[in-house]
Write a structure and sequence with these properties.
The chain is an alpha/beta fold and about 425 residues long. Helix 4 runs parallel beside helix 6. The protein has a 4-stranded mixed β-sheet with strand order 1-14-16-15, with helices on one face. The protein has a 4-stranded mixed β-sheet with strand order 3-4-2-13, covered by helices on one side. The longest helix has 13 residues. It has 2 domains: about 200 residues, Enolpyruvate transferase domain (UDP-n-acetylglucosamine1-carboxyvinyl-transferase, Chain), CATH 3.65.10.10; about 200 residues, UDP-n-acetylglucosamine1-carboxyvinyl-transferase, Chain, CATH 3.65.10. It binds uridine-diphosphate-N-acetylglucosamine. Uridine-diphosphate-N-acetylglucosamine (UD1) binds next to helix 1, helix 5 and helix 6.
Length: about 425
């Protein structure tokens, strides 16, 4: 890509990756056909579809219409193999539903990935609390229960998104009432709770820190529209600000991005709500903004690299604190190849804004780092080549065509090696 263009126009955001993968797993809880709408056309959805097929489901994916239909048989296989789990860590979200449906689940351990160690201890402890046994054998997490799981009180040490989902999906058909305290409150958690309740679950406290789940005998399939992807919407908002552009983002919810949009306003942007989203206009060099990542409703870690890119060309210096994933700063070494002035120490990064970045080849190491590097490339002098585009494909559907429509000078090259 060649930097320097102002991005102007409109984009529509699809359903959230971090919701739809879990909704696909939740479909396992009901025999019959569950239909999901507004599904993004991204690689991770394909991986999850393949995983569900191997468990015995029929899965169709209409990429253009954004519809996934999952037909779940009466009897499911209960093993998620390493070849898929290693490609997508979120595969772990089949653990809870498989245990609930089959009384057993064998899921390959994902191991470390590019943004840190990401333990599973809270997932496992929660399932054990509900009566399951769990062992780690030959690289697989093997969970089983002879009887139905039973409702219990579970307290999470940290409001983990994944652990909340695993325990929730195991508890909806457990015997009795489960109370999960200190749960994650992300919009994606609200989305899965809503879908489970539509399926016949009885979950109270949706959106709060405590979920009370009265176990039911069985769930039924539904049709459900996926919540919009707040991280993709936030990425477009940063794109407008960093390029001093004007982008209207449709199918986006201001209330899901409150702190991030507030930061863009402090940077100098004008953000206005439109009927189904918001518009971000910027006509000056952005001012540097400090950020601290925290569980929702705090600033999302998945927008941290994009904001570091923004700070890299901002007026002033910013302190960025990462509280969720320790290795998420790895990407700043790539950003430094574009001339960014970023120093890290533990979970802090000090970003001193430069007047300009300078185009260079860089490598994306994860989805959001990839997005951050593309944003930086949009304002770097000369040509920037981002390698590892497959990471970006995991989270952003139609990213390059959308950028082109908004006026970016960018082309997608076939990756070699
Ligand atoms: C999800 C999102 C990811 C987002 C993150 C935080 C998906 C597919 N991914 O990841 O994009 O950045 O939420 O908003 O939805 N932890 C433990 N033990 C556990 C579980 C988690 O120590 O049992 C730690 C992790 O190492 C990490 C922190 O808790 O440091 C947050 O993890 P969690 O909220 O579970 O994130 P994910 O569900 O993996």
């Amino acid at each position: 890509m060649v930097g320097g263009s102002r991005l102007v126009g409109e984009v529509r955001v699809t359903g959230a990756k971090n919701s739809v993968l879990k909704l696909m797993a939740a479909a396992l809880l009901a025999e019959g056909t569950t239909t999901l709408l507004d599904v993004p056309d991204i690689l991770d959805v394909e991986i999850m579809a393949e995983l569900l097929r191997r468990l015995g489901c029929e899965v169709t994916h209409d990429q253009v219409g954004g519809v996934v239909a999952i037909t779940v048989p009466a009897i499911l296989d209960h093993r998620a193999d390493y070849d898929l789990v290693r490609r997508m860590r979120a595969s772990i979200c089949v653990l809870g539903p498989l245990l609930a449906r089959c009384g057993a689940a064998e899921v390959a351990l994902p191991g470390g990935d590019n943004i840190g160690s990401r333990g599973l201890d809270m997932h496992v402890d929660g399932l054990i609390k509900l009566g399951a046994r769990a062992v780690n054998e030959h690289g697989y997490l093997i969970a089983s229960t002879e009887k139905r799981l039973r409702g219990e009180s579970v307290y999470l040490d940290f409001p983990s998104v994944g652990a909340t989902e695993t325990i929730l999906m195991a508890a909806v058909t457990a015997d009795g009432t489960t109370v999960i305290d200190n749960v994650a409150r992300e919009p994606e958690i609200v989305d899965i709770c809503r879908m489970l309740n539509e399926m016949g679950a009885r979950i109270a406290g949706v959106g709060s820190s405590t979920l009370t789940i009265e176990g039911v005998e069985e769930l039924h399939p539904v049709t459900h529209r996926t919540v919009p992807d707040r991280i993709v919407a936030g990425t477009w908002a940063v794109a407008a600000v960093i390029t001093q552009g004007d982008i209207t983002i449709h199918n986006a919810k201001v209330e899901h991005l409150q702190i991030a949009l507030e930061k863009l306003v402090i940077a100098g942007a004008v953000v206005t709500e439109v009927e189904d989203g918001f518009r971000v206009v910027m006509d000056q060099r952005p001012k540097a903004v400090d950020i601290v990542t925290l569980p929702y409703p705090g600033f999302p870690t998945d927008l941290q690299p994009q904001f570091i890119a923004l700070n890299a060309i901002a007026d002033g210096a910013a302190l960025v604190t990462e509280n969720l994933f320790e290795a998420r700063f790895r990407f700043v070494q790539e950003l430094a190849r574009l001339g960014a002035d970023v120093r890290t120490d533990g979970h802090h990064a000090l970003v001193r804004g430069r007047l300009a970045l300078s185009g260079a080849p860089v490598e994306a190491t994860d989805i959001r780092a990839g997005a951050g590097l593309v944003l930086a490339g949009l304002v770097a002098d000369g040509t920037t080549t981002v390698y590892g585009v497959s990471h970006i494909d995991r989270g952003y559907s139609g990213f390059v065509p959308d950028l082109v429509r908004l006026g970016a000078q960018i082309t997608r090259l076939e990756e070699v090696g």
